[in-house]
Amino acid sequence: MSESPATDEPVKSIVTPTRTTYTFTPGPAAQMYLRRIAKGHIVGQRCPQCKKVYVPPSGACARCGVATEGEVEVRDRGTVTTFSIVRVPSENIDLELPYCTAQILLDGADIPFFGLIQECDYQDVRAGMRVQAVWKPESEWGPSAENIRYFKPSGEPDVPFEKFKEHI
Q1: Which residue in 61, 90, 91, 102 is deepest, having the highest Cβ count within 10 Å?
Q2: Cα 115 to the chain's mean position, in Å?
Q3: DSSP state, 67?
Q4: How far apart, in whole angstroms, are the C-alpha atoms of residue 116 and residue 92?
Q5: What does the alpha-carbon distance between residue 135 and residue 70 come to, in Å, rounded to a whole number?
Q6: Which H/E stretch holds residue 83?
Q7: pLDDT tens for residues 52-101?
Q8: What is the DSSP letter of 96?
Q9: d(CA 25, CA 9)
Q10: 131-164, pLDDT tens digit by residue?
């Protein structure tokens, strides 16, 4: 066994491969969401107090601290509220850099939904832009938000900031 040369220099970093495997057990609200998105429907739940619609539903209103109720179907199109241009590569994401991710306020929801923006130049993405979901082929659908491949511009006029500012 060879010995490392002795040094008084502090160790600043090490490279250690890691892997984490976990099992997610969805609660009743998430189960409803996953079952419905597996059939091509995006659903959330409504807070009985503030009336906000959460998509995907967590089962409780973060604002009021009460259980959300029912099943509220929302559209698969919406408005970009905020966005980010990604310029840093990741070994787990096979997209050409740069690309755009966004928070999208789906029509009928009150909480933005995370999505990838494609089919336009990343420099053309803007707050207020109207987008629509591009779904995987139905034969590939499962209980996952990944059934939506990405969002693309819908061609509709932009929404003025005043109409979505409370959702940022």
Answers
A1: 102
A2: 5
A3: B
A4: 15
A5: 25
A6: strand 77-86
A7: 999 999 999 999 999 999 999 999 999 999 999 999 988 888 899 999 99
A8: P
A9: 46
A10: 999 999 999 999 999 999 999 999 999 999 999 9
Q: Cis ω on the peptide bond leading into residue 56 (within 30° of 0)?
A: yes
What is the rounded CA–CA span in Å between residue 116 and residue 121?
Answer: 12
Distance CA 115, CA 151 (A): 7
Paired sense of beta strands 69-74 and 53-54, if any: unpaired
CA angle 140, 142, 145 (to 5 degrees): 105
CA–CA dist 31, 25 (Å, integer): 9
The CA distances from residue 119 to 113, 132, 135, 154, in Å, are: 19, 11, 13, 10
Q: Which among 113, 114, 110, 89 has a CA at the least distance from the CA of 101?
A: 114
Which tokens go with 71? Answer: 């099943």
Best CA proximity match to 106, nearest among 74, 146, 81: 74
Strand 130-135 with 113-117, pairing: unpaired
pTM: 0.85
User: Which sign, positive or negative, has the C-alpha torsion 116, 117, 121, 124?
Assistant: negative
Q: What is the structure's pLDDT at 78? A: 98
Contact call for residues 163 and 140 (beta carbons, < 8 A): no
Q: Are 69 and 46 in contact (CB under 8 A)?
A: yes
Q: Helix (H) and strand (E) counts for the chain? A: 1, 8
